[in-house]
Amino acid sequence: MSTEPGHNENKKDDGLPTVSKGVGGAGRVSGLLTSGSAKDAKGTLFRLFKNLASFKWIFLAAILLTLLASLAQILIPRKIGQIINLLTEVLTTKNALDWTVLGGIGLFLLALYVLNFLSNYLSNILMVRVTQKVIRSLRDQMQVKLNRLTLSYFDRSSAGDMVSLLSNDLDNVANTLQSGLTSSLSALVLLVGVVVMMISINPLLAFLSMIVIPVSYFMVKFLVKKAKPLFQKNASLTGLFNGRIEEAYRGEDIVKHYDIGDELKSELSAINEELYDSEWKSSLVSFITRPAGDLILNSNYVLLAIIGGRYVLNGVLSLGGFQAFLQYTQMLRGPFNQVLGIFNTIMSALASAERVFNFLDAEEIVELGDETLDPGSVRGEIVFDQVDFGYTEELLFNGVDLKVTPGEQVAIVGRTGAGKTTLVNLLMRFYEIDGGKIYIDCKDAKAYRIEELRKAYSMVLQDTWLFSGTIRDNIAYGADLSGEKDLADIGFERIKEAAELARADSFIERLPQGYDTVLTEGASNLSQGEIQLITIARAMIKKAPIIILDEATSSVDTRTELLIQHGMKELAANSTSFIIAHRLSTIQDADRIIVMDSGTIVEVGTHDELLKQNGYYAEMYLAGQA
To answer: Most C-beta atoms within 10 A of its C-beta, which of 13, 97, 108, 584?
Structure first.
């Protein structure tokens, strides 16, 4: 039997179930992480530079300042060598010291130190500025992307993954951009400059010094190859671990009620152990590069000291030149240490950046039309014409036909997985149909922009959601803001009227701050029934021509539910309404009841008509009365 998305996509796992409710009856599988992060390091790096293009002048200024600082640093040892040669000449020849020459070299050396300091300082400031602008741009892109993603993306993803993307991954990219780019460039310039200076002093010693370059290169290449999968795994496990923690926190009551804390601890411990294992291995591979590099460089340094010392004694090389050469040899260590030490940070940042770009490349909602819609002119006629739809290749709906007249109240019932929620999801274009047409007032729904189409609907889901803020703002959130600036501009009279229709006004007035009561995260200071009444009030304030209630009263008592239905009748006097309900006693007064099974409409009629047919509906109704 075809099922709704939660049943299609929920896979059996060795750990605890991690399926949370999706839209309506749709399930949601947590976690969208895979181990395949940073597969295309070059492509990811190219995209990062594309994001830098908007701030290229600031970036180029930072690069030029980095080059100036590096050039100043390269010249400093040579000038110190000149001072040593000048003093050596005085000691060996007994000639008087030329203070003018010494002062000139000293002032030039001081200017190099000042230039090095200022250039580094300004370069760092500019790189911080560029980085934060790039990260802000990426956050803005991700925010826009969130509103364009298909619902199927959220069916496969978890809140923990999104939190990891917006925090850990972006911070990782930011830290690397701030320091990694300038450090890498500085290391490259120093490497080239130092080699040139060393050759100018003594080509043979320079050749011996550069033997370490190919050795270090192949060592780094080998270690990068070994470490890359480990960093990919780290990024994946971090997101997975965050997702599990998020679920455990949100489902704390369920965990305690079913006493599955030990099992949850075991699962988290297993993930944590795996994360620890991959973390220490990647850290070991990363940190072993520095002592290995030091060993190679120090061995080379000893060799140079012996040969260079002989050159000085033989008069082939001046003492100042030899001192400058040794200083350049030490400077050569710096770029190598930077390369050997920063590659792990860069690999980790590229893995994070690719996860961000994979999110930005995710499938978006496709706008098939560009027409606008005036909710006030919508009559509310809905027609399904030979509609085909499936969450997978197997169709759930196959040639479904349905016509709902303006102002009609239609109840949709059926067994779990019958396709009730799917029917209203297709109305809202949360998913695109595979075949057929859905008409609203004799016009193809695809002719409208999705944002415009949804102006015609007001929807209350069985999954309640309230944001941190006042009750007043939470109800006002459902109002049409097209003529207003923000939530504060919604009149209190409209908010109170919606609350009265939803039968929420009485309990709100009893709260100490009334409508100005601030809700905590997850609205934990209200009962589940009170939360649901506020979500219904939020839908009512919109006064949409088409109303969808998907198990909207599942968390309230029967008496309150009947009162809400009276309020709904007032609101829906001139509106078309779809009501999904499992308690059949609450939808007996509906104009029509649609009975679904396995994606097919099997019965249609009023309560009395369906009881007389003695079919699916009668069976469900009598089972509920038993």
So the answer is: 584
Residues contacting residue 611 through CB under 8 Å, at least 6 positions apart: 617, 618, 621
Q: What would the two tokens of residue 621 be?
A: 């109704």
What is the amino acid identity at position 452? E
Q: How many CB atoms lie within 10 A of CB 581?
A: 21
**Alpha carbon distance 580, 421 (integer Å):** 8
Helix axes 319-360, 261-287, angle to 10 degrees: 150
Burial string for 187-212 (b: 16+ CB within 10 Å, else e) reads bebbbebbbebbeebbeebbebbeeb
The Cα–Cα gap between 539 and 495 comes to 11
Q: C-alpha angle 327/333/335, rounded to 5°?
A: 115
Here the tokens at position 105 are 């070299």
Q: pLDDT of 294-312, one tens digit each?
A: 777 777 778 888 888 888 8
Joined tokens for residue 133: 């602008």
Span 595-621, pLDDT tens digits: 998 888 999 999 999 999 988 889 888
Q: What is the pLDDT of residue 565?
A: 67
Q: Measured on CA atoms in the order 572, 575, 580, 582, is the torsion positive or negative?
A: positive
- Is pLDDT above 70 for 547? yes
Cα–Cα distance for residue pair 415/596, rounded to 1 Å: 8
Which residue's entry shows tokens 């059926």?
A: 414
Report d(CA 459, CA 421) in Å as an integer.
12
Whether residue 40 has pLDDT greater than 90: no
Residues β-bridged to residue 410:
578, 592
Secondary structure class of 397 (helix, strand, coil): strand
Q: Which of 66, 27, 72, 97 is nearest to 197 (CA)?
A: 72
Mean pLDDT, range 323-337, rounded to an integer: 76
Q: What is the pLDDT of residue 34?
A: 33
Which contiguous run of DSSP H or E holds residue 626? none
Angle at 204 between CA 202 and CA 209, to 5 degrees: 95
What are the structure tokens assigned to 378, written together?
A: 């919508």
The one-letter amino acid at 132: Q
Which residues, at least 6 apart from 189, have a Cβ–Cβ distance to it below 8 Å? 66, 67, 70, 71, 74
Asked if residues 412 and 604 have their Cβ atoms less than 8 Å apart, the reply is no
What local confidence, expressed as pLDDT, does residue 401 receive? 92
The string of pLDDT tens digits covering residues 54-105 is: 788 888 888 888 888 888 888 888 888 888 877 877 777 767 777 888 888 8
Q: What single-letter amino acid sits at 582?
A: H
The DSSP element (H or E) to which 433 belongs, if any, is none
Q: Which residues of 9-28 are buried (b: 16+ CB within 10 A; e: fewer)?
A: bbeeeeebebbbebbbbbbb
Token pair for 561: 């539910």
* Helix, strand and coil in the chain, % to nearest 5: 65, 10, 25
Cα(453)–Cα(36) distance, rounded to whole angstroms?
38
